[in-house]
Amino acid sequence: MAPHDPTPSPDAAGAPGPSALTDFAVDLTSQEVLRRAQVMEALGPDWDPVEVLLGEAAAYDLLYSGLDAEQQRLYDDLVAAGVLPLRGDGRAAA
């Protein structure tokens, strides 16, 4: 990678100036692999991502169930504005 500033001229002894840039790189690949392995270990062998997503969908259905007329109107407005995703037929669950 080219420096943004010109490389300073060497001093009389041929050493680079005090602000000479040094090119280096840090590879975080092994750390990322370790982090992902630790996350999967923390989740455990019984973790089921499909079950989690189905549970979230059921929670949203429950959250938007039994709305009165004003709440339903607000829900419909939020869906129309794109704030909430369209669920089922576009109506909150009864």
Description:
The protein is an all-alpha fold. The protein is 45% helix and 0% strand. It contains 3 helices and no strands. It has helices at 29-43, 49-63, 69-80.
List keywords for this structure.
mainly alpha; elongated
SSE layout and pairings?
Blueprint: H1 29-43, H2 49-63, H3 69-80
Shape: elongated
Which bin fits the share of residues in helices? 40-55%
Which stretches are poorly predicted, pLDDT < 50 over at least 5 residues?
none
Give the averaged pLDDT, no decimals: 81
Strand content range: under 5%
Protein structure class: mainly alpha
Q: What's the number of helices? A: 3
What's the number of extended β-strand segments?
0
Rg over CA atoms, rounded to whole Å, is 29 Å
Largest sheet: none
Topology as a string of helices (H) and strands (E): HHH
